[in-house]
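Attaching the record inline, Q. Sequence:
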Amino acid sequence: MNQNPNIFVTTLNLKLSAKMLADLTEQNFEISTPPYTVFSAKKKGISCTFYKSGKLTVQGREMASFVEFYLEPEILGTFTTNYKHLDVETNHDYMDHIGIDESGKGDFFGPLCIAGVYSSANDIPKLQLLGVKDSKKLTDSQIIVIGKKIKAEFKHHIVKINPQKYNELYEQFKNLNKLLAWGHATTIEQLVQSTDCHNVIIDQFASEDVVITALKRKKMKINLTQRHRGEEDLVVAAASILARMTFLEGLALVGKPFEVILPKGASKQTIAMGKKIYAHFGVKGLNETGKLHFKTFIDITGIER
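Structure, as predicted:
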């Protein structure tokens, strides 16, 4: 399977949709209307999707012929042999695959969240239209808005480990990377079972063996790709958004019983809030709100663990 074919992207006047729909129906395309689209048309070797934003995407091994012999003369009214007017995107893996990422591992307060998203090759451009990008480049409010759309439109699975459970698991694993690998493997397992897709891309966080070992324990055979800056892949980026959204929502919920707004990260503000919780609720309060193996715990309590 070609993991990186070109995709043709252009913007059209929505008034052209009626002509295109009639033309493609005549050319024996199968027509459907997924969310956010005017229509999606498919037949062997070619997939064409016209979005309500006016964006048109074409992909498949017959893409060049479709553009040259139909789209250019009939719709675009321009002619080129070098495709300079095309917006060719080759930075993403245009294949059916699962993307996995996590959030909260560097935050003292709040849960650890691992999220997975599945997308077919044809639906990957939809992620771009939803505004999906690396969650670190989005504001919290943008993450919430885009994350809800991803949850509504794409198959996904989320593992949320609240602080108390996290601390119990850390005592078992004695290693954050092993705990993360377990969370990744669990998320992968659930999505593979629900989608029957075995292509998985994750953001690399440790030696590859850690995740592979966790998958072997679950007796899973998948096509696993680990890469630095994994969020450059749109499906991994979508997972990073779901993970961060779940973390933000979880952080608010964890602080609610203590009537506080818990800060992100592990800053001086975090230490100050930790001391406040410790003064009123002791280690029990920190166990219910934070990750106790962090050095931040020592800074807050003066207790060596």
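Residues 97-255 form a domain with the Nucleotidyltransferase; domain 5 fold (CATH 3.30.420.10). The longest strand covers residues 112-119.

More tomorrow.
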